Design the sequence.
């Protein structure tokens, strides 16, 4: 299929019973994808044009706290197999929270911010030092427009505008919706808009308005081949400055202290990296040792 139709990107939507973490099936699936990529590279060996190299993305369930435990295990399984992931796409929908109490756009932003922290921690633990901006480019979101599966939970056009702004501000790599055939107002015969329908959104809208709103000015970076192999921190002692107590460090600054590299999580001063408090207000995060 890949050869016949010249496929350059594959997305794996893994959910429900197929989302089985570190199971034998999950491991074998990831290894099969790695072999598929290797076979493609072997065919393209010696060619200057790498635009036909196969890119792999994962579409996974999420909640307001980011990726689920099994979702993170799935990402790990693919990375363990040596698969470079172009996008980790979150299904930001069906939070089972009434939109009258909290908007779905708020839940979606919470989910994506949490996933960013999860993925950054995972990549750092593997010695892959991407910037915050780069990690946003590796993430994506798929929203369920209009009425969701849960009664009184819905994604409105105002939510779409808010998520579009969020995606542009963060440089989110991928933004999509479920689904194009639902991007229209329900007919007059369908008065019950509290039940999800496969052919309309349940919202008052013009045809295609969700797609237009979500896509306004958005380009994204889907299908991008990421250089995972070279995304490592410089291991020399001269790569980052040694921590000093009288220096005001800003978010993202990196220092070396007692043989480890630390990243500042916010503005801080006189907060020794290896003796600072932990938790959500921690001023530092350890990245890893100076190799």
Sequence:
């Amino acid at each position: 299929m890949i050869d016949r139709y010249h496929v350059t990107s594959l997305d794996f939507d893994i959910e429900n019973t197929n989302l089985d973490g570190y199971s034998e099936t999950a491991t074998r699936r990831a290894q099969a994808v790695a072999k598929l990529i290797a076979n493609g590279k072997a065919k393209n060996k010696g060619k200057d044009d790498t635009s036909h190299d196969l890119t792999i993305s994962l579409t996974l369930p999420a909640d307001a706290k980011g990726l689920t435990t099994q979702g993170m295990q799935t990402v790990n399984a693919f990375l363990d197999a040596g698969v470079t992931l172009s996008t980790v796409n979150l299904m930001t929908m069906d939070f089972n929270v009434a939109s009258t109490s909290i908007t779905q756009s708020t839940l979606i932003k919470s989910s994506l911010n949490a996933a960013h922290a999860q993925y950054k921690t995972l990549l750092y633990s593997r010695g892959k030092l991407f910037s915050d901006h780069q990690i946003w480019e590796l993430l994506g979101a798929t929203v369920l427009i209009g009425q969701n599966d849960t009664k009184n939970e819905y994604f409105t056009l105002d939510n779409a505008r808010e998520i579009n702004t969020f995606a542009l501000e963060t440089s989110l790599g991928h933004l999509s919706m479920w689904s194009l055939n639902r991007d229209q107002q329900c007919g007059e015969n369908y008065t019950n808009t509290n039940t999800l329908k496969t052919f309309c959104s349940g919202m008052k809208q013009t045809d295609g308005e969700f797609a237009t709103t979500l896509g306004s000015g958005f380009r994204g970076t889907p299908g991008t081949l990421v250089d995972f192999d070279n995304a490592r921190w410089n291991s020399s002692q001269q790569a980052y400055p040694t921590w000093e107590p009288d220096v005001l460090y800003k978010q993202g600054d990196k220092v070396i202290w007692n043989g480890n590299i630390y990243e500042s999580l916010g503005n801080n001063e006189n907060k020794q990296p290896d003796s600072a408090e932990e938790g959500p207000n921690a001023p530092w995060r350890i990245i890893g040792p100076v190799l």
